[in-house]
């Protein structure tokens, strides 16, 4: 179960969502300004593939270069092809941060932890290179049996969530997931698995943008993950179970890092606050000369 020891200090859902959505707008405005300066890549994946979902609905792996998700990921992306890119990114950023705020409240975040997460440079980066982690985030607010359908879109986003489920929930979720795969064969054909496999074999992930410890020291990463997971089970702490997933993710781009950082801020809010300050100092050192 989720740790409720700080529930009395948790802001209301309304306050949590309000702050999260305000920060989504602020970071979107910042992204717009940086995009106009043309000094950083902004919304590249959105422009090159995610806002092309409608045109490539039935064959996303051919028309959307670097699309590494199951084909049903295109369904919630379809409307964004029919609106200007700034509006499409604004709506997705609002959705994403709204979901993050909802998740943070569900797991009992304190105000200082919420501020640390939402004001961090990781939150800005999540909007600068807006991806589809927001679809995966839906998996944490729907009933657990439906979660895998959404989590499969970006498995590295919430790798540790599976450890919070009971065996009965896992069995039921697996059955529903298999049903979704069978249904997908009717819509996208039985060869979509081949298309996804080919995409992985011919396209490279942006490993230079990954901060996954697994990518640098896999054995150490696994050992740390197992140790944290064992401690989480000992404490019956769902937040730490989810946080342990960061050590089991072979690939974790910087724009996805806001997710494990959010769970760090939920469990250790003051530490997260100091980490956020440190990250801003590093960001200023790196990007200051560029901007």
The total of beta strands comes to 0
Radius of gyration: 19 Å
Q: Tell me, briefly, the overall form.
A: globular
SS-derived structural category = mainly alpha
Between the first and last Cα atoms, what is the distance in angstroms?
45 Å
Strand content: under 5%
Order of SSEs: HHHHHHHHHHHHHHH
Helical content stands at 55-70%
Number of helices: 15
Low-confidence stretches: 1-5
Describe the structure.
The protein starts with 12 loop residues before the first helix and ends with a helix. 59% of the residues lie in helices and 0% in strands. It is mostly helical and 291 residues long. α12 (218-235) packs antiparallel against α13 (238-244) and α13 (238-244) packs antiparallel against α14 (258-267).
Descriptive keywords:
single chain; 291 residues; globular
Concise summary:
This protein has helices at about 15-35, 45-50, 60-65, 85-105, 110-120, 120-130, 135, 145-150, 165-190, 190-200, 215, 220-235, 240-245, 260-265, 270-285. It is an all-alpha fold and about 290 residues long.
Task: Draw up the topology in text.
Elements (H helix, E strand, L loop, with lengths): L12 H25 L6 H5 L11 H4 L21 H22 L4 H8 L2 H8 L4 H5 L9 H5 L15 H22 L3 H11 L10 H4 L1 H18 L2 H7 L13 H10 L1 H19 L4
Helix pairs in contact: 1-4, 1-5, 1-6, 5-14, 5-15, 12-13, 13-14, 14-15
């Amino acid at each position: 179960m989720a740790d409720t020891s700080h529930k009395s200090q948790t802001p209301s859902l309304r306050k949590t969502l309000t702050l999260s959505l305000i920060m989504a707008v602020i970071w979107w405005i910042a992204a717009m300004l940086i995009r106009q300066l043309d000094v950083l890549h902004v919304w590249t994946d959105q422009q090159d593939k995610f806002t092309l979902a409608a045109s490539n609905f039935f064959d996303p792996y051919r028309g959307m270069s670097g699309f590494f998700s199951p084909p049903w990921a295109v369904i919630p992306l379809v409307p964004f092809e029919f609106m200007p890119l700034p509006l499409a990114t604004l709506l997705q950023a609002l959705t994403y941060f709204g979901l993050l705020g909802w998740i943070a409240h569900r797991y009992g975040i304190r105000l200082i932890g919420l501020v640390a997460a939402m004001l961090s440079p990781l939150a800005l980066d999540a909007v600068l290179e807006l991806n589809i982690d927001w679809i995966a985030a839906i998996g944490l607010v729907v009933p657990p049996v439906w979660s895998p359908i959404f989590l499969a879109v970006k498995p590295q986003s919430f790798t540790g969530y599976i450890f919070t489920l009971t065996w009965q929930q896992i069995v039921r979720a697996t059955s529903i997931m298999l049903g979704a795969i069978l249904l997908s064969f009717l819509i996208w054909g039985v060869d979509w698995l081949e298309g996804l496999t080919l995409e992985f074999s011919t396209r490279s992930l942006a490993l230079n943008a990954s901060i996954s410890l697994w990518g640098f020291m896999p054995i150490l990463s696994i050992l740390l993950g197992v140790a944290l997971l064992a401690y989480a089970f000992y404490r019956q702490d769902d937040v730490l179970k989810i946080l342990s997933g960061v050590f089991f993710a072979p690939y974790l781009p910087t724009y996805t890092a806001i997710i494990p950082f959010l769970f760090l801020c939920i469990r250790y809010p003051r530490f997260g606050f100091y980490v956020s300050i440190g990250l801003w100092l590093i960001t200023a050192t790196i990007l200051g000369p560029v901007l």
